[in-house]
Aminotransferase (Nocardioides aromaticivorans), 380 residues
Amino acid sequence: MGETIFAEMSALAVRTGSVNLGQGFPDTDGPPALLDAASAALHGGANQYAPGIGVPVLRQAIARHQHRNYGIELDPDRQVVVTTGCTEAIAGALLGLVDPGDEVVVLEPYYDSYTAMIDFAGGVRRPVTLRAPDFRLDPAELEAAVGPRTKLILLNTPHNPTGRVLDADELAAVARVAQQHDVLVVTDEVYEHLTFDDHRHVPISTLPGMAERTLTLSSAGKSFSVTGWKVGWATGPAELVGAVTAAKQWLTFTSGAPLQPAVAAALDEQHEFPVRLAADLRDRRDQLVGGLREAGLTSYTPEGTYFATTDVSALGWRSGGDFCRALPERAGVVAIPSEVFYDDPDGPGAGRHLVRWAFCKRPEVIDEAVRRLAAADLTA
Ligand SMILES: *Cc1c(COP(=O)(O)O)cnc(C)c1O
């Protein structure tokens, strides 16, 4: 196993004093009430192992969150498990549901922990590529990727790294294919609240016939700007949640005891925080995408998430990796080459020449990055 691209690029950022728009974490804190609640829990004695499936107040708050936002009914004792971030929910879902030789259909470019966990489970990846400029999911390609060995479709919407929010037609296509072929859907919805303009996140589990075959994953990290907390969850049918719980026993067993009641309070009481965060991120998006375009980079406008994608080929670069390795010296900015998120970055419409930029940063940080890019020679 090699070092992740994020570790490599973050080290490069430190070494060169670059503005780091690589790894996706905000540089501002979550809501003060959330931090106070964690501190109170810590000083109030919530410091020993929490129950493996999570503390009841958090499981109940997650069930209320799904009901309030999407009308989804969940039994908090059987249909909700708390995990160590969405990362462990992904691991638990894939280790718990995929047997060696099973195929997993996954949107490409993909979040990198998916490929590691499909490998750990002995599964086989079947990528379906989302292509620039609009990164739409092609139903025919999805259909072609699903076969007799497919165990599940691993969805991610809003989608990292493209910033797509799958629309009603795309979700309906996934639902139709999943039901026709009788496969499960595991859906990573960590950016559920972080959508822009008139794009709205719709959980695929709310489509007809999907609740019984969908495992939904999310996390407090992105919604409340506490990516370091690693409090996530999986929700859905009891037997799918049970598969995650079974795997989780041998991963971490249990997660951040004092953080769980704090996240519960935030889910119940801080509804406005993610709404304001999304509005703020939309402004940061516009600031960064505007700056990237002024610097001569072809930029696609994301509909959600923390990330914008650019095409560096117009500047003469054939590889986003070469561009990103040169960028810290040239401009004092770090970004992530999207080529690492593809099985075959040179495949049709794939992303050898694409680069991902994080805009979940303070305005002055983005300003500085944009200024540096404007002043630099970015041609190959
Ligand atoms: C950040 C992220 C995660 C990880 O969530 P944690 O709660 O930090 O483990 C999972 N999936 C996607 C798509 C992400 O961007």
The pocket of pyridoxal-5'-phosphate is lined by residues 85-87, 111, 156, 160, 188, 190, 219, 221-222, 227, 230, 232 (CB under 6 Å). DSSP finds 13 helices and 13 strands in the chain. The chain has a mean pLDDT of 97. The two ends are 31 Å apart (CA to CA).
